[in-house]
């Protein structure tokens, strides 16, 4: 697929309007929270989109329970220059001015509660527990093979270190969302058409890991283009990478599969696992190299979460058909949210600012490229897909943890968390 070159303004204007009523105030209207130019009524208060986005994220993700006042006195200044310094005081000011959390909660999910799927069960499904609860007892205590991935690790760290090069000069004048989209399309331009792809009926686990390794390189190259990511130390970048690469890879491949195969992704489970290979419903993964547990048992461990990916991710993507910019938005939001949850502190702080910038950039894109002024409902649906991906990822993480407890696999990696779920 060859994507057309970007034509997008980088004019700043932030948006997160899933539960707001917008107006068109005069250009002199001031945000009651931070003092910057206001863009309308957000949750009942005249405010800029950045503060509206911050308020909604805080309530939806219940972050206010974790915020602590940086000054220790709950009276930090909240202005255009200081609004990022203390999240608790910024949130409290929003509430004091009259922003209502109830409105945010009402729009928290694009699917009404009465229509939620019946299979939205516990994080670790009972079937997965059964699949792992009865491995051959002879596995316990057996010598385990350690696979050294230090070479791969060093290669990824080398990419994440911008001092070694790799930053595309074309991104120099782009905004945050444009950079993410440009780096995504640069890789996706290598995607083969369906007739040139190999259909796999059986995928040896060694070949699957080889595919993953190539995609890890892609994710590292995508990450390092972002100036905000480069604010982290090399050690922090690597931890960030390990927290999100597998989720990023899985979601990107599902979105690309929907783009290529349409309804076949849901109906016959057609899936572009890489730029070169296709899987369908009949395919099997051969785990025999890394476990003595029967293949059918290991497959059953992940069946439930894969089914959810097809129905809760691929199906909504079929209806939404996100643009490349929207896909880049979802991938970037997902990355900072997941890494921030794991790493906290500095990553959360930078992530808050990045999310404001992304909302800003997406608003500009909708208005100037798609001529779409009323996009609140669509944005809620896009983020609902992101939330589904994160939930399924957590489910797979729990499954993998149980697999380790029961010693389902006879192979460990020198860095176990790098291939987590």
TrEMBL record:
Residue ranges constituting the Nuclear receptor domain according to the UniProt record: 28-106
User: Region labeled Disordered — which residues?
Assistant: 1-24
Q: What is its main location?
A: nucleus
Q: Where in the cell is it found?
A: Nucleus
Concerning Pfam families, the annotation shows: Hormone_recep, zf-C4
Please give the GO cellular component terms listed in this UniProt entry: nucleus
Low complexity bias spans = 9-24
Residue span, NR LBD domain: 169-421
The source's domain of life comes to Eukaryota
- Name any one GO molecular function: zinc ion binding
Keyword list (alphabetical) reads: DNA-binding, Metal-binding, Nucleus, Receptor, Transcription, Transcription regulation, Zinc, Zinc-finger
Which protein family is it in?
Belongs to the nuclear hormone receptor family.
Which protein is depicted?
Nuclear receptor NHR-102
- This protein's species is Caenorhabditis elegans
